[in-house]
Amino acid sequence: MTTGQKVPARERLLAAAEEVFFDRGIRATGVDEVLSTAKVSAASLYTHFGSKDGLVAEALRVRLAEWQSVWDECAVRAGSDLERLLSVFDALAVFRARQPAARWCAFLSTATELPDAGDEIAAVLAADTVLLTGRLRHFAKPLAGDRAADLADDVVLAYNGTLAAYLRGYPADPVEAGRRVAAASAAAY
Prior knowledge:
single chain; mainly alpha; 0% strand; DNA-binding; Homeodomain-like_sf
């Protein structure tokens, strides 16, 4: 896009969704606030996404694709099986550095806020869980063999605790603390 061209309404809506839904909350944020932030009409929202839920689902899909790309980069750079398993923490640090400041994880936040989410949102939340658990089980296999699922579960708990630590503001470096916990768990296998 050349200088002076306006960002398309769809992209502005997605940026606004990222800014307000995952910082202030989905339920707490009305459609009017999203429209105002994006500087678009209601017709644009409904034309591109059909509903507020459609916008939330698409914002989560975009975020999931970006997250997976960052994690792919970190996993490829890992120099050992243990580093590959722990790459989820490296990816979290890189992802948070690239994204606008968010209180914590958009997927956990959405799952908490919308436990009865419609099919479209629920499908994206499930895809995030499948990515996380499937990849960690795969990365745990060389380290834990038949107990790879158990090790992956341990790492998921450390990862979720790392995300929650951002809400609490403690420890000072949640990624490093979560990484330490996950590495200690891997050493036990």
